[in-house]
């Protein structure tokens, strides 16, 4: 992504954050009558940041690069949370980090694969960059779908959430879960702005799903690593599972996503049923064998 494109994304993100704030939320007089813009006006955002309207306008239009000092002022003025602030600095290329190199698709780390093999009653996935599904255990296949029959190029968690009918339908709160996943991908996009596979994924989903197109344009960002998922499985019925994600410490970008239920709960009983159902598949092939490549 060239400097002009980076400044364009920076400006678009500023505009999105400004549009989400109401005047009364930032201590300005409550709006009266019809407002031509959603959220704050440019002059209101500029006043909160104590910068000129002209300079703020040029920032939103991508005509000038921001300084680190201005980034901090803007983040405070627009009431950005931790994730939004991190994204702001990332797209402004003002983070103190070593330059990122393009990395080839990596095999699953052996330690993560061993964890998958040992989690017999617990659905678990290894996610890579762009939320690609790199590996899974039999319990995850029993819960979601048989990942092995999906072409590797389409084996992406977000893509399946939007375009795989079975995966989409099993999410009882699909809009919430899908929007969170879009926010996670948007957060990742700041770190890999020139990734052609990411651009291809975003382009495909934008063309094929109106909700994705809307949510991607809203520029919500999230780095949340835990939450609760509500499923409706065709075999065992409704499940409520805690979803936790741990990042690999080696910088590979690989993450282990694990779904658990409280011991003795109906959801935990359902997971045990699914685990017993997946035993034949476990006997036929070693977890992870030939996958993630």
UniProtKB/TrEMBL annotation:
Pfam families membership: HTH_31, MLTR_LBD
Gene3D superfamilies: 3.30.450.180, lambda repressor-like DNA-binding domains (1.10.260.40)
Superkingdom of the source species: Bacteria
GO molecular function: DNA binding
Coiled coil: none
SUPFAM superfamilies: lambda repressor-like DNA-binding domains
Stored InterPro entries: Cro/C1-type_HTH (IPR001387), Lambda_DNA-bd_dom_sf (IPR010982), MLTR_LBD (IPR041413)
Protein name: Transcriptional regulator with XRE-family HTH domain
């Amino acid at each position: 992504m060239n400097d002009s494109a980076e400044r364009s994304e920076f400006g678009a993100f500023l505009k999105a954050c400004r549009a989400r704030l109401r005047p009364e939320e930032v201590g300005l007089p409550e709006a009266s009558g019809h407002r031509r813009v959603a959220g704050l006006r440019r002059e209101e955002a500029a006043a909160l940041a104590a910068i000129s309207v002209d300079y703020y306008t040029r920032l939103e239009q991508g005509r000038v690069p921001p300084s680190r000092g201005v980034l901090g002022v803007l983040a405070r003025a627009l009431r950005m949370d931790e994730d939004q602030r991190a994204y702001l600095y990332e797209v402004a290329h003002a983070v103190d980090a070593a330059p990122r190199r393009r990395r080839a698709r990596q095999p699953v780390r052996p330690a993560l694969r061993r964890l998958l093999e040992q989690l017999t009653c617990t659905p678990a996935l290894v996610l890579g960059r762009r939320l690609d599904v790199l590996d899974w255990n039999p319990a995850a296949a029993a819960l979601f779908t048989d990942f092995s029959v999906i072409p590797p190029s389409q084996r992406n968690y977000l893509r399946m959430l939007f375009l795989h009918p079975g995966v989409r339908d099993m999410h009882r709160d699909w809009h919430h879960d899908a929007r969170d996943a879009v926010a996670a991908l948007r957060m990742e996009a700041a770190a890999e702005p020139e990734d052609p596979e990411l651009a291809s994924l975003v382009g495909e989903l934008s063309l094929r799903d109106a909700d994705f197109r809307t949510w991607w344009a809203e520029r919500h960002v999230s780095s949340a690593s835990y939450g609760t998922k509500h499923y409706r499985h065709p075999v065992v019925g409704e499940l409520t599972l805690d979803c936790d994600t741990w990042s690999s410490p080696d910088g590979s970008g690989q993450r282990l996503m694990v779904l658990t239920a409280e011991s003795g709960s109906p959801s935990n009983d359902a997971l045990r049923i699914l685990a017993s159902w997946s035993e034949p598949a476990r006997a036929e092939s070693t977890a992870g064998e030939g996958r993630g490549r």
